[in-house]
Amino acid sequence: MIAELSDDSNLSAWRWWERRRLRYNVGLFLAGISAFVLYLAVYFTLGNRLPMEIDVTIFTVIFHGIAFAFYVFVANVFYCLGALSERLPRMRSLESHRQMSFTFGFWLSVALPFLEPLLLAYVAFSRSPA
């Protein structure tokens, strides 16, 4: 059964999600900084084991910053799907759906910036020392 959402419930959904956006963005920001620090740690400790030439310069730092800003923009676009997801049929508990969707989306978004340094570390550890 698809329940029609009134304008009040749509507004309520947007308010609920917007009240949590700052927490979401702070989490993204902290994850981005932590992931870059991890990237630097991998570079400085395992750089000699990497098959490709990787260098940390002002240009790479700027590139990572611009790429991360784009990531935050895309993550916030996807964040808006949280409020839209409340229109899904057969939702039993709105509050449960909100909490589960926010938690899943938050941790997925916070984990994604760590893929680059973790893949870099994987490549370094999967090769024999130079």
Quick description:
The chain has 130 residues and is mainly α. The chain is 74% helix and 0% strand.
Task: Characterize the structure shown.
Helix 1 (7-46) runs antiparallel to helix 2, helix 1 packs parallel to helix 4 (94-111) and helix 1 runs parallel beside helix 5 (115-126). The chain has five helices and no strands. It has helices at residues 7-46, 58-79, 81-84, 94-111, 115-126. The longest helix is centred in the N-terminal third of the chain and has 40 residues, at 7-46. Mean pLDDT is 87; it is low at 1-7. It has one domain. It is elongated and about 55 Å long. The protein has 130 residues and is mostly helical.
SSE map:
Layout: H1 7-46, H2 58-79, H3 81-84, H4 94-111, H5 115-126
Helix pairs in contact: 1-2, 1-4, 1-5
Please state the average pLDDT score: 87
What's the shape?
A: elongated
State the order of secondary-structure elements, H for helix, E for strand. HHHHH
Number of strands: 0
Ends distance: 62 Å
Strand % is under 5%
Please count the helical segments: 5
Largest sheet: none
Q: How many separate structural domains?
A: 1
Helix content: over 70%
Keywords summarizing the entry:
mainly alpha; 5 helices; elongated; disordered N terminus
